[in-house]
Structure formats: structure tokens, C-alpha cells
Specification:
The chain is α/β, with parallel strands linked by helices. The chain contains eleven helices and 19 strands. It binds guanosine-5'-triphosphate and magnesium ion.
Length: 481
Amino acid sequence: MTTFVDRVELHVAAGNGGHGCASVHREKFKPLGGPDGGNGGRGGDVILTVDQSVTTLLEYHHSPHRKATNGKPGEGGNRSGKDGQDLVLPVPDGTVVLDRAGNVLADLVGHGTSFVAAQGGRGGLGNAALASARRKAPGFALLGEPGDLHDIVLELKTVADVALVGYPSAGKSSLISVLSAAKPKIADYPFTTLVPNLGVVTAGSTVYTIADVPGLIPGASQGKGLGLEFLRHVERCSVLVHVLDTATLESERDPVSDLDIIEEELRQYGGLGNRPRVVVLNKIDVPDGKDLAEMVRPDLEARGYRVFEVSAVAHLGLKELSFALADIVAKARAAKPKEEATRIVIRPKAVDDAGFTVTREEVDGELVFRVRGEKPERWVRQTDFSNDEAVGYLADRLNRLGVEDELMKAGARSGDGVAIGPEDNAVVFDWEPTMTAGAEMLGRRGEDHRFEAPRPATQRRRDRQAERDEATQEFEGFEPF
Ligand SMILES: Nc1nc2c(ncn2[C@@H]2O[C@H](COP(=O)(O)OP(=O)(O)OP(=O)(O)O)[C@@H](O)[C@H]2O)c(=O)[nH]1
Ligand SMILES: [Mg+2]
């Protein structure tokens, strides 16, 4: 038997975006031909896709680290870097994707249904794309962004229409073996079935799937036997079938009390209450079994169950049962909202990237104003802090977004600490509210070691003047995103 794995933790890394290129076109007799640095390529995504030929998550159990390829950097001559390749990971039908906290991110049902588990980083713009009327020859380019890194959990919930539940040795696997072409393991000791079996049944014009789960015993909800762990495989079914053993040799058991006990365990598990149920009294080929079945039948029917007397071994009552199940399945399918086109691609929720927040915080006894927001944080990631022009461009962008104004409103004063990004990964600098001097804001008293390339004082003065001049004109810089 192949190993069955129905829960794995997977570490997915999308590709990083390639850096943009800063380059100036050169030709004989035409020394300053303008910026021609190309854009970096996009990093590849990691995509989970339902593939019906895959039945377990075993592969990911063996190698849980998966990475898509990076985008290539842009090059001179307006050559864009190549995009990274998406990494497509095939998963079984019915795979549920969760984050580590247990929140469901996606529920993948139907061949071809896909989920982007990690998004590749954007490529950085080259200096050709950053050029504008005002910034004719940018001496910088944007960095590619890192791709997403996520730890996710994959859980398999078998997609079956009909689920068989019951005590060990009640004959669940035997029933699957005679209703479908599946050949599960059958034996006369309890817990023969350790993982769910799945079979396909054809009854008239209806084709449906039927699954069993390992046998349940009293106290399964407290983890007795194999526990309720496998019940997630029956969560999606349209109908639950109680398989009751009419020929058990255990003196304290009978079909009705077996049913009560299994129902109690299902109730403990929760979520299956509204599923239609039918009762199958199995093993009526045994004479005592037949008698017992006839005895308990009125009782069960009085409770509202449809009751089928069958023998998996002697092939009795099977046709009636399979057609009745087909009927319930067909009705359930008709009642379900129409399935959307099969090839659904689920993308992670788009982050609200319009806004940003400024909050006052105390870090190690010092006042810090923290700026959080998709755009400011992305722009910081795109900035090559060893390049003053790039830092100036960042300052311009932040200013235009209104970060400066908000800091002012929040009470920030010259020299206060400002951090852009989350606590563990922020760019920190001392605030200079003279936003016209773009590069100065970040450059002069920055605490970030990346700011440390000094410029001579004369150069700085000249830059500042140029930037002031620039800022008095209306900003018309290229806004890439
Ligand atoms: N006489 C008789 N025996 C049956 C019938 N159905 C199943 N059995 C026997 O009952 C025993 C258990 O059958 P399984 O199909 O393995 O039972 P199960 O419910 O899948 O059991 P677990 O996997 O342990 O939960 C086997 O020895 C079967 O041959 C039947 O209709 N009549
Ligand atoms: Mg079994």
C-alpha cells in the first residue's frame, strides 16, 4: 500500500524581481544618447494547481521547500530582464490551503483550480522607464522586490459524494469493493482501514464517488481508536451512510446502540448535522443477522431513516442501495449553486495599497513615528540606498503620497525618529521636515548603515539647490505603479 499523507507544511518562496538597470546609451559621435537601462524581470509565482492524477500530498512531505526562479536584471540598450518561471505544484482534488494560524486561504476543488501561494516580486524599473521631462537622465534604477515567502499548510479533504461511517469491521470497505471497482483492504480485524478509500460508482446515468473512513469507536472524539481525525474526509459529502453490523459477536452491541454511539461521535466532531443520512444494515447473509435486521428496522424507520438491508459478501440489496444513493447525490448536486468554470485561479487577497498609517511609538525609550502602508514599504524595498538620486526619488514619492503631512499632523518634529515598515524590518531615519531636500531627508542623519556614503559639502549644497529648484515646479515624475 502506498503511504497516504493528508496534511503537510509547505514552505514556498516566489522568485525575486530582477533589478532595473541604470545605463546611458553610448554611440560613436553621440556620447550622451539618453538613458537606456531596461527593467528587471518579474519573479516567478508559486502556484498550486489541482491535478486529478495526484492523490496524496506525499511528495510535499518529502520535500517541503519549494522555490520559483528569480527575474533577471535589466540591461543596457533597453533590454528587459527575463521574467522568472512560475513554479506549478500539482495537488490532489480537495486540497485545502491554510496559513499557520489555521485560517483557510483556499479550498481547491475541481481539476485545474489554482491558487497563487506566493507571488513573485516585481522587477525594478530601469532608468529609461524612470526618465521624465524633468528627470531626463536618471542616474539610478529601482531594485527588484523580493518574492513572497510563506509557510502554508496543505490539508486533503477527499471529495466524495457518499461517505460510509461505522464501527470497525462493519463492512464499509467491503461495501466499497462491491459497489465500485476499488479494491480496498478487507479483513476481519478492527482498523483494517487506516486511511480513507475512494471508489467510483455508476448507477444508471449517475456517476458518484464513495469513500469510507477508518472505523469509529466510542470515545473516538477523545482520540480513541484512530479518533475523529479522518472525518475531515467526509465533510464534503452529500450523504452519510451508517454501516451497521447485524452479525457482530460482541454481546453489548446491536445496530441501534451502534448508531447512537456513532451519531454521538459525529456530533462531537461537529459540522455534519445537516447532512442527509441513510442506514445500511449489513451482513444479512448471516441468518442471525437477517433476523436482527428485521427486528431493528421499524425502530430505525420510526426515527426517520431510510433503511437498506444488504450483504456485501453475498451481494444482496446492493443495486437498490446504489440507485437510492445516486438519487440523493443527484438531488444534492441539483440543489448546489452551479459550479463556476473549472479553471478558477485564486489570488491572495489584494492588499489595500491606497493608504498608509502613521503611529507614535516608543522604542527603547525613544519616540518613533512608524509609517506602515503597502506603497511606502514597497518603495523603500525598491530603493538602492547607496545611490543618493534613488533616495531623493524615494523622498519625492513619499512626499507626494502625503507622508510628510501626516508626520507633521502626528506631531513629529525635526530630529524625531521615523521608521518605515514593520518592527523587525524597518528603515529608520531622523526626520528632517524640509522635504524639498529630498535626498537630505534620508541621507544626512540616517541611522541606516546603507546611508553612509558621504558626499562632499559643496556637492550637497549644489544638490540641495537643484532639488529646491525642481520642487518648485510641479512634479511630473513618472509614477510607475
Ligand atoms: N458475512 C459477512 N461478512 C462480511 C460482510 N461484509 C463484510 N464482512 C466481513 O467483515 C469483516 C470486516 O470487513 P471490512 O470491510 O474490512 O470492514 P470495515 O468496516 O472496512 O472495517 P475497518 O476498516 O476495520 O473499519 C471482513 O472479514 C469481511 O469479510 C457481509 O455482508 N457478510
Ligand atoms: Mg475498512
